[in-house]
Amino acid sequence: ARAEADELLLQARRALRQAEDARDRAAKRNLVDDARAALAEAETARAAASTPTVAPVTVPIAIGSPVHVEGVAEPGTLLAVDDRGMADVAAGALRLRVPATQLRPALESTEVPIRSNRPVIQGSASSVPLQLDIRGARPEEALEVLDRYLNDAAVAGVGRLRIIHGKGTGALRTAIRAALTHHPLVRTYEAAGASEGGDGATIVTL
Prior knowledge:
- The structure is a single chain.
- The chain is an alpha+beta fold.
- It folds into three domains: 1-54; 57-116, Roll (SH3 type barrels); 128-206, Ribosomal Protein S8, Chain: A, domain 1, CATH 3.30.1370.110.
- The chain has helices at 2-50, 139-156, 171-182, and strands spanning 66-69, 76-81, 86-91, 94-99, 103-105, 120-121, 131-133, 160-164, 188-191, 201-205.
- The strands form two sheets. A five-stranded antiparallel beta sheet has the order 4-3-2-1-5, with no helix packed on it.
- It is rod-shaped, with a radius of gyration of 38 Å.
């Protein structure tokens, strides 16, 4: 019986040593795996840091191409760009003069080409200008532009505007002032002073 007990004790000790050896090997494998993972992560980070950053390529927009202007919902057509980087853009019945950096290419439009006597708005497209030049426009076209201009000005919080309609026969001035009389956004209007155009312009308060 004692010999049998000694044999069992020997087997138990042998099993314990095998278990301890297996545990040590597993621990070493874990350390190696962790080291390999850390090395791979470091190599990836180094490769990302050494990759040169490619600057975005700016594609020139050809004259006559359709464009979008920042701050303007309606697409337009690029008419010209001067040496100072200022672009002339026709957008619907409006003509804008804005920095060329505010332009983005737009899809081709099927709209009818704009006439050369369209109304002109001077100022930045990113804000509502303080005056609207509609000289040379037909009354029905001018009234459509005027309504949109007044709405934009009201949204932007502009309180005082100058509408340049010219003197001419007085037909355009009469149509503009009649529309201002009934426009819900207009508080008052009056003929401009001599220094602001006299009867050729109207001052509007929103």
